[in-house]
Design a protein that fits this description.
The protein has helices at about 10-25, 40-45, 50-60, 80-85, 95-115, 120-135, 140-155, 160-180, 190-210, 210-235, and strands at about 65-70, 70-75. It has about 240 residues and is mainly alpha-helical. A two-stranded antiparallel sheet has the order 1-2. The two termini are about 25 Å apart.
Length: about 240
Amino acid sequence: MQEFARIKTQKIYEQIADRLQERIEQGGWRSGDKLPSTKELSEQFQVGRSTMREALSALKAKGLIEIRQGEGCFVRELTPQELELPGLLLPGRESVLELLEARKALEIANSAIAAVKHTEADLRAFEELLSSMKAHLGDEAEGEAADIRFHKLLAEATHNSIMVRLLDSISSQMETAIRETRRLQLYSNAEVSHRLWDEHQAIYNAVAKRDAQGAEQAMRTHLDHVEQVLRAYIKG
């Protein structure tokens, strides 16, 4: 008997993101255009604002829009480099492992470079962030935002603008994958979030000591943990 392919179901926010993407691709909104507010879009689609925010975050992760704090969402103009990046607009589960592999290579390198080139100002920024992270253990939203900020700070501590741009190009797509692991309680589980804080602290300690090899190993340990969680989600 012939087997049928598994039917894939879409969450509501994914369906909305697809509709919004279609409008952008068809020229309904052009580069630089501001999208309606989250409130207006929520009313149009008759969904809650949290669902609409998820849809907009998905578009951001695809590189289609940028979200400006206090201003709203705007359609991005893709650079030639982004258009050449395979799978840029298709950040599904199939590409997550490739993104993780690329991220691991980049961030291990960033750790070693930051250990050599960081400044005292970089260390102060890390210390302030780690203190905030510890104070908000178990807070899902704060944990996610702080995690992203930590890795951005590390890239900035390399004092290499290309490293920063490379991380940005990967992170925008990784955000969706990280957000999808919420059901696995990556940040909302206090025990897991404490382990993540310990891993970030270990990376910082090595960087502060200018121990490039130790920073590389600490980053590898951290990303191996994140990869383990994501693999469990993807296979689930």
